[in-house]
Amino acid sequence: MLSLPPDGMVSMSVITDRQKLTELSKSLPADQHANVDVAALLGLAQQAVQRHELGHAEQILQGALVVDPDSAPAWGLLGKVEHALGAEPAAIEAYANAVMLNDADLATALALAELHAATGAPEKARALANWLLLACEDEPELLKRTQTLVNKLQRSSIG
Asked: Do 50 and 75 reside in the same domain of the chain?
């Protein structure tokens, strides 16, 4: 059973590991879950992002994910925050969790593909982009961004 460290803080290495987070969530007493509104925490985290308080948003999202490790919106927003903080590995893991939990969130899937391309994983970026070309036919802006990514990946593989 996973437990909180003595200082009560959960490190980012734990928070981005969905399996460990699920174990942590299950180890908490049920009454601690009952009084926590994950949607409200997401709202607070979004407000913190808008105020450019990314560290604060990260802490709120960590709390939300301890309560509900299957919250795709929390994972997606955490990916955005981690990316903005320059923590690409954590951003990739968070985005991947969000897409795994909700593959209909095409904007998050595109963010993940773009991050893969930027961090030297063109095969992963290409696979996601090819899937997105089919999935976002009805979303012109996402389709345009996906086509731009595909073109960039093609040019980089030629050169």
From this structure: yes
